[in-house]
């Protein structure tokens, strides 16, 4: 049913390839398969609009060098190639190590029952009706057997090759990047690429918020977390390239699934960068803080996620914005979290020359 609805929606919207991407300013061919050139430059990094959160400020000038970026989120098909070549086992497919887990918890936290310490991952489960938003555990479940091959768990629909791979931890993303000769984007690179050369806009598509009639990405339409009208044609993750790309030729930078970045999370990252740059100063190629701190969970280190997901909506997170920041512990997988890779021009040149 979802596949049929998706097909009808795409026919109604027309081809989702968007306008042809200009190759002006790109390095000489050959180019890395499935990647687009992000020219780099200066932009104002940080919050725009009423949805912006305190951690997105101060808005400060940043410059990033040019780089190659995957045009889509990593797909299930490409993850299969990693596993076939290396026999890699993802975090979600391994039994959790309690000795490692308790390092991220307040001292004295009791050990969970052994029945919970099994290979599993976090899966969104809609509620039966309205609930308070003060506890995300009301709509998330720890599902044994949920992994990149089975996003909803054993016995449920298998992941399709053209869907973004999910239930991948930050550690899994790093493993793929190393195998592919790539890396994760920094938070600054990700935001620059997402904006598509149009700095200062509230959304990637302009100033009008998404809605049931303004369908611009795979997001949540309806009342969260119990009524998903799926006006965009999708209840969960959509196949990559289901929506038009931005000006750089990048698909699904907003919505579909969150994307891992390389940076540690801190709510004061921008304030620190602005202070170090000085008044009117420019932050160049920021790599993020050296350590993590999340005031809500001070014992758990977190890495940055960007882009929002199919769960984003105005009632709860409104993270369908270029500047929106999220954080997750590096060993965590969820069915709305994936990644895409980047590489420098030099890294591509070395990789290409090595094949000659």
CATH architecture: Alpha-Beta Complex
Major sheet, described briefly? 4 strands, mixed
Q: SSE order, as H and E?
A: HEEEEHHEEHHEHEEEEEH
Helix content: 10-25%
How many domain units? 1
SSE class: alpha+beta
Shape: globular
Give unreliable regions as ranges: 1-15
Q: What proportion of the residues form beta strands (DSSP E)?
A: 5-15%
What's the tally of helices? Answer: 7
What is the count of β-strands?
Answer: 12
Task: Break the fold down into its secondary structure elements and pairings.
Elements: H1 2-13, E1 35-38, E2 41-45, E3 60-64, E4 67-70, H2 76-86, H3 98-101, E5 120-124, E6 140-144, H4 170-180, H5 187-195, E7 258-264, H6 269-277, E8 283-284, E9 303-306, E10 325-328, E11 337-338, E12 342-343, H7 345-354
Parallel strand pairs: 3-8, 7-11
Antiparallel strand pairs: 1-4, 2-3, 4-12, 5-6, 7-9, 9-10
Notable traits:
alpha+beta, single chain, paralog of FGE (formylglycine-generating enzyme), disordered N terminus, 3-stranded antiparallel beta sheet, 14% strand, 4-stranded mixed beta sheet, 356 residues
Can you put this structure into words, describing what you see?
Residues 1-15 have low confidence and may be disordered. The termini are far apart. It is built from seven helices and twelve strands. The protein has one domain (25-98, 117-354): paralog of FGE (formylglycine-generating enzyme), CATH 3.90.1580.10. The longest helix has 12 residues, at 2-13. The chain is globular, with a radius of gyration of 20 Å. It has 356 residues and is an alpha+beta fold. It has helices at 2-13, 76-86, 98-101, 170-180, 187-195, 269-277, 345-354, and strands at 35-38, 41-45, 60-64, 67-70, 120-124, 140-144, 258-264, 283-284, 303-306, 325-328, 337-338, 342-343.
């Amino acid at each position: 049913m979802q596949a049929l609805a998706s097909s009808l929606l795409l026919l109604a919207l027309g081809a989702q390839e968007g306008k042809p991407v200009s190759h002006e300013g790109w390095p000489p061919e050959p180019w890395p398969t499935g990647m687009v050139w992000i020219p780099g430059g200066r932009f104002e990094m940080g919050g725009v609009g009423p949805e912006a959160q305190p951690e997105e400020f101060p808005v400060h000038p940043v410059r990033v060098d040019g780089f190659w970026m995957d045009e889509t989120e990593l797909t299930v098909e490409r993850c299969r190639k990693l596993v076939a070549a290396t026999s890699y086992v993802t975090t979600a497919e391994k039994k959790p190590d309690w000795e490692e887990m308790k390092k991220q918890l307040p001292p004295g936290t009791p050990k969970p029952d052994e029945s919970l310490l099994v290979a599993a991952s976090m899966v969104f489960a809609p509620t039966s009706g309205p609930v308070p938003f003060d506890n995300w555990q009301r709509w998330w479940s720890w599902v044994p057997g949920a992994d990149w091959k089975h996003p909803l768990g054993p016995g449920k629909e298998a992941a399709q090759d053209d869907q973004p791979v999910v239930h991948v931890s930050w550690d899994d993303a790093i493993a793929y990047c190393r195998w592919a000769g790539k890396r994760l984007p920094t938070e600054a690179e990700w935001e620059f690429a997402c904006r598509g050369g149009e700095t200062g806009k509230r959304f990637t598509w302009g100033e009008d918020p998404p809605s049931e009639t303004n369908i611009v990405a795979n997001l949540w339409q309806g009342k969260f977390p119990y009524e998903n009208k799926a006006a965009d044609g999708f209840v969960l993750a959509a196949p990559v390239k289901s929506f038009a790309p931005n000006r750089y030729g990048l698909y699904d930078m907003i919505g579909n699934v969150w994307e891992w970045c390389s940076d540690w999370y801190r709510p004061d990252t921008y304030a620190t960068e602005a202070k170090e740059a000085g008044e009117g100063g420019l932050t160049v190629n920021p790599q993020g803080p050296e350590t993590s701190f999340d005031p809500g969970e001070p014992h758990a280190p977190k890495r940055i996620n960007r882009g929002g997901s199919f769960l984003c909506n105005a009632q709860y997170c409104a993270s369908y914005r270029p500047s929106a920041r999220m954080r997750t512990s590096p060993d965590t997988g969820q069915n709305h979290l994936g990644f895409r890779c980047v590489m420098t021009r030099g890294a591509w040149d070395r990789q290409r020359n090595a094949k000659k």
